[in-house]
Amino acid sequence: MESYLADHVTRVGAGNGEPLLLIHGLGHCKEAWDPVIGLLGARFDVAAIDLPGFGGAPALEETPDDHSLSAFCEQVMDGLGWDRAHVAGNSLGGLIAIRMASRGRALSATALSPGGMIRGWEKPWARGMLRVAKHVPSRLLPLGVFSDTALGRKALLGLMFGKPGRMTPSYARSAMAAPARATVFEETLDAVDEIDHLPPPTVPVTIAWGSRDMLLFPWQGQRWKATLPDARLVTLRGLGHVPMPDDPGLVTDVITRTTELAQDAPST
């Protein structure tokens, strides 16, 4: 764990406030949070992590489903000296954040387009598009036009991002390269399915969905709301599946508001 913490955790704002764990989605890496980590670090002790098998991190020995990945994130918290933390995640990371809240390790959970509510034809669509995202962008990465121009980013990254023209070229290059670097992409994709048993979290949970999410569709948020009636459901107007570079300020505000709900809640 010591080498993992040194190589696969970005820590910002240590000593600035309550702990906040950031968890990326399938195929991405800790750099997914670069647009917001500085904003969040002004208020929280933030750690953005690489999930096992992503971002160059070693893979788990067990099946990489949301249960084992949640348990691993809790081990990371132990290594950081955190008993509980606010947790925010995107896509697969959002599902993990909710799992951690259900398991009692989260002070609050913010889930941005969380997985776990894909049904019917949505499943082959999402899996097919994720496989396209894994293989196509990395092959086009040497053609700088797709990362270095707003039009190129819009053409290639519009599936995942609502406003790809706004992202920086360096962020675009990271997003294009990350899926191909993942060593357990297919294994994780096959292992994570519709949620099964989920004890209701007793901490504030926010489900936030980009209105331009074309991978996991916004109506899946209503399924989460039906499963977790006490959760707050928020629409992110004009944002995509990975909303952090689309509007860093709005994403920061959504996460911060969720943490404030935890502070406002009566102690038990």
Automatic annotation (TrEMBL):
Annotated InterPro entries: AB_hydrolase_1, AB_hydrolase_fold
Transmembrane segments: none
SUPFAM superfamilies, per the entry: alpha/beta-Hydrolases
Cross-referenced PANTHER family: ALPHA/BETA-HYDROLASES SUPERFAMILY PROTEIN, LIPASE-RELATED
AB hydrolase-1 domain: residues covered: 20-252
Gene Ontology molecular function: any one: hydrolase activity
Pfam family, one: Abhydrolase_6
Signal peptide: none
Keywords for this protein: Hydrolase
Database matches in Gene3D superfamilies: alpha/beta hydrolase
Origin superkingdom: Bacteria
Full protein name: Putative hydrolase
